[in-house]
Specification:
The complex is a heterodimer of chains A (about 240) and B (about 350).
Chain A lengths: L23 H14 L6 E5 L14 E4 L5 H11 L4 E7 H7 L1 H9 L5 E6 L29 H4 L5 H5 L5 E8 L3 H19 L4 E7 L3 H4 L3 H15 L3 E2 L2
Parallel strand pairs in A: 1-2, 1-3, 3-4, 4-6, 5-6
Antiparallel strand pairs in A: 5-7
Helix pairs in contact in A: 1-7, 3-4
Chain B lengths: L4 E5 H11 L4 E4 L6 H10 L5 E4 L3 H13 L4 E5 L1 H16 L4 E7 L15 H5 L10 E3 L4 H18 L2 E7 H5 L1 E5 L25 E2 L8 H19 L3 E4 L6 E4 L2 H16 L4 E6 L1 E3 L14 E6 L5 H9 L5 E5 L8 H12 L1
Parallel strand pairs in B: 2-3, 2-4, 4-5, 5-7, 6-7, 11-12, 11-14, 14-15
Antiparallel strand pairs in B: 1-8, 6-13, 10-12
Helix pairs in contact in B: 1-2, 1-6, 3-4, 9-11
Classes of the chains: A alpha/beta (about 240), B alpha/beta (about 350).
């Protein structure tokens, strides 16, 4: 019998701590599949974020570092410069990459650091209990935008991927989502492209992953996937940005 | 270039010392009065490693965190307001047990303060500075030669104890030029950094982290830090002392302040005043040994370019056995020889 699905070597066979319907488990798995398929596990160094995925290294079976909130791309810059032959990537949420770490993000991209970034956009702060994120949609209720995000008080959802696409140091940016098997496969192709670009020394690559947070959206896992498809993707259209 | 004397500023001497100690990663952000250091590194570091002018102090210290996690000797430098920004990263470096060297060429504060030399970051340097129960080893050179020498020592200590080491100078030390005897020092092969991130070929994955969520795990990690600090306290006290055997007044000063104290001391000795000097070189661990004198008639006079920060460590070391007096100025003011001599004469009356 032909084996068509198996565990990844780059992912430990352990249960994750993520909530039902959360996108992190799928995104972790996609990174692991890509690392396996490119046969780079033994030279990969991952940077885990501060946020729900802080213990990503409990799931990934390769070298990893934590970074302070927002600083992952500064840490990754140094590791890649010290070990240019290694494959270095960051895995960051929207608060990490697009609020507290905006400066590090923009400047690492502008330097054209030869890095891969997996950017999880779930439009909310998960680990701290569902506060307003830079990517929270207008009208979306969070624990710090009780009546819903209002442009005068909170500004607009930040489209950091489109902003980064303006920089000449950036080689590749694509936005993907995880609400259906087809989208998951597209997401994997994009993540693989981001890693392949680094192997080919092409510079800064980023994949923005629209990911569900049922717990802090106040929706069921199924409703959350529908919300990504019907609401979130209108504000954050998927596809190649650069 | 080796084994000869060169005329160089304190900032450049620290950079040259670091380069000879095998530092192969430097990230910094411009700030006065340490700009000669970053400029020297921009010129020299690419010959043996990586130089990055970071977008901020936060980025610079986190780059040092990354480079150190990757297993190389790494350094950053700044001055007071910039060092405040680096505190987050320094706490993470301490928590993750990474070696690193951080240079603070102090200027006046608080806030933006001014660019005049000061010693008012002593508390910040010796009490940790960021969040959590941790220490840095803090070394305070008083000459350009010593700045060069201690820069090299710093990297060895950082690797040996897996701890961030701070070189604490001030704007005068950073800017002034003095002759430096370059050493023929060969870079010690760094201890095998089997914890470093290099890719997991042939071994289990390495994780660099300071996050310990499981019940009891953080306490365990903190106790390991404390054990390390206990060893450092026992082994790494550094100080210079002069004329302690017959001194009635002992001046206590570090860095630039100690140089002024020495001039005052030699003038006082010329008129047979029994004055001595203790110059702490390691500010953490603060030297306890020279303060163990039993003679109850001794009086200490602490001199600082601040309003009394090291003063607290001297009082703790003296333990109430003898009186401790203080003379300090800050915000651009520096206690001069005349003020020191007047104060000593008053104490001796």
């Amino acid at each position: 019998m032909k084996k068509i699905f198996k565990r990844c070597q780059s992912l430990y066979a352990v249960p994750t701590h993520y909530c039902p319907g959360c996108g992190h488990g799928i995104a972790h798995r996609l990174v692991a599949e890509v690392v396996d398929e490119l046969k780079i596990r033994e030279k990969t160094i991952g940077i885990a974020p501060v946020g729900c995925a802080v213990v990503a290294y409990d799931y990934w079976n390769f070298d990893c570092s934590e970074a302070a909130h927002g600083r992952a791309l500064a840490v990754a810059t140094a590791i890649k410069r010290v070990h240019p032959q290694n494959i270095v990537f960051t895995y960051q949420g929207d608060g990490d990459l697009a609020a507290i770490g905006t400066n590090e993000t923009i400047h690492a991209a502008n330097r054209g650091e030869n890095l891969s970034v997996v950017f999880i956009n779930n439009a909310v702060y998960g680990m701290t209990g569902g506060q307003l994120a830079p990517t929270t949609l207008l009208g979306q209720k969070t624990s710090t935008s009780i009546e819903g995000r209002e442009r005068k008080a909170h500004g607009y959802p930040l489209k950091i991927s489109e902003m980064l696409a303006l920089l000449p140091g950036v080689c590749y940016i694509e936005r993907v989502s995880l609400e259906s098997p087809g989208e998951v496969l597209r997401a994997k192709r994009a993540i693989k492209q981001a890693f392949q670009n680094q192997i080919n020394n092409l510079g800064f690559s980023l994949v923005e992953v629209l990911s569900a947070c049922p717990t802090y959206w106040g929706l069921s896992p199924k409703e959350s996937l529908e919300w990504v498809r019907d609401v979130m993707r209108k504000e954050f259209p998927v596809g190649r940005i650069k | 270039m080796l084994n000869k004397k060169i005329l160089i500023s304190g900032n450049e001497a620290i950079a040259q010392g670091a380069i000879q100690a095998g530092c192969s990663f430097y990230a910094g952000y411009p700030i006065t009065p340490q700009n000669e250091l970053i400029a020297y590194m921009a010129k020299q570091m690419p010959k043996q490693g990586v130089f990055i002018q970071a977008e901020s102090e936060l980025a610079a210290i986190n780059m040092v965190y990354g480079a150190s996690a990757a297993g190389v000797r790494a350094m950053t430098s700044s001055s007071s307001p910039g060092i405040s920004l680096k505190q987050e990263g320094i706490s993470y470096i301490a928590g993750a047990r990474l070696p690193a060297v951080i240079v603070n060429i102090m200027r006046g504060g608080p806030g933006l303060g001014n660019i005049a030399p000061a010693q008012s970051d002593y508390f910040q340097a010796t009490r940790g500075g960021g969040h959590g129960d941790y220490h840095l080893i803090v070394l305070a050179p008083a000459s350009v030669q010593e700045a060069y020498d201690l820069a090299q020592v710093s990297f060895d200590l950082a690797d040996k104890y897996r701890i961030p080491v701070m070189i604490l100078g001030d704007g005068i030390l950073g800017q002034m030029m003095e002759p430096v005897q370059l050493s023929m020092r060969k870079i010690k092969a760094s201890a095998l950094k089997n914890w470093a991130l290099t890719g997991c070929k042939g071994r289990k994955p390495n994780i660099v982290k300071s996050f310990f969520l499981r019940e009891g795990a953080l306490e365990e990690a903190n106790l390991k830090l404390q054990k390390n600090y206990e060893i450092i306290r026992k082994k790494e006290e550094r100080f210079e002392s002069l004329f302690l055997s017959d001194a009635k007044v002992i001046l206590v000063a570090y860095g630039t302040m100690a140089r002024i104290a020495k001039s005052a001391l030699s003038q006082l000795r010329c008129v047979r005043k029994k004055v001595g000097l203790i110059r702490p070189i390691s500010l953490w661990p603060f030297p306890q040994k020279p303060f163990s004198l039993k003679n109850k008639k001794i009086k200490y006079l602490v001199l600082e370019m601040s309003y009394g920060q090291m003063l607290e460590d001297v009082r703790l070391a003296v333990g109430g056995r003898q009186p401790v007096e203080f003379l300090g100025r800050s915000g651009g003011g520096v206690p001069n020889e005349e003020q020191i001599m007047n104060k000593v004469n008053k104490i001796l009356q």
